[in-house]
Design goal:
Length: 197
């Protein structure tokens, strides 16, 4: 699908949400993340018994889409760590402390794209910088284009992406309960971007 759209245009996508549409000779386009149709799910092993998951509800971001030159596209995504949601209030409150997310000192995490590599008909590998707990490390997202077109109700032009990646939390200084609670945290991202008029 990505290759087919190459005639019309592919660009960047994130976790976090980042990505592309169709290749045509046009100026770069601006998109905003639709927070109501975006989810960032995290999955971490719990004591070897289960793979526990939660989500971040507060996500915002912008995408600049260059249809002629996808490598020149760029995106920045911000996650409000105060909106971590495990479904258990006591656990959410613990995750907000200095043991884990330390939201009082570091209320947000940010992903800023640095490069894109097309790897298939509907797939791309997006590299960027993830800033978490005051540390910035590279993060690679495997991205799939899930859809593009005009919204049937609002008329907005929408591009949608799925993305996966892995964050090693100890690299950001989040060492509490490692390895009992997994060091590697899997991210599963579903996102929609709305073209700005």
């Amino acid at each position: 699908m990505f290759k087919a759209m190459k005639k019309a245009g592919l660009a960047l996508a994130l976790a976090t949400g980042l990505s592309a549409t169709a290749f045509s000779a046009q100026a770069a386009e601006s998109y905003k993340l639709d927070p109501t149709h975006t989810s960032v799910i995290f999955i971490v092993n719990h004591l070897g018994f289960s793979n526990f998951q939660g989500r971040f509800a507060g996500v915002s971001g912008e995408l600049t889409l260059d249809r002629e030159n996808p490598a020149a596209s760029a995106a920045i995504i911000t996650i409000d760590l105060n909106q971590v949601d495990s479904g258990v209030e006591a656990l959410d409150n613990h995750m907000k402390t200095a043991d884990f997310l330390n939201v009082e000192k570091f209320p947000t995490a940010t992903f800023k794209s640095t490069s894109v590599e097309l790897v298939g008909d509907n797939a791309a590998k997006i590299t960027g910088d993830l800033t978490l707990l005051g540390e910035t490390k590279p993060l690679v997202l495997d991205v799939t284009l899930t859809g593009e077109g005009d919204h049937p109700m609002t008329g907005d032009h929408v591009v949608g992406f799925g993305a996966t990646g892995t964050v090693t939390r100890s690299e950001y200084g989040m060492n509490f309960l490692v390895p009992g609670v997994g060091d590697d945290v899997e991210l599963q991202i579903s996102s929609e971007f709305l073209k700005q008029k």
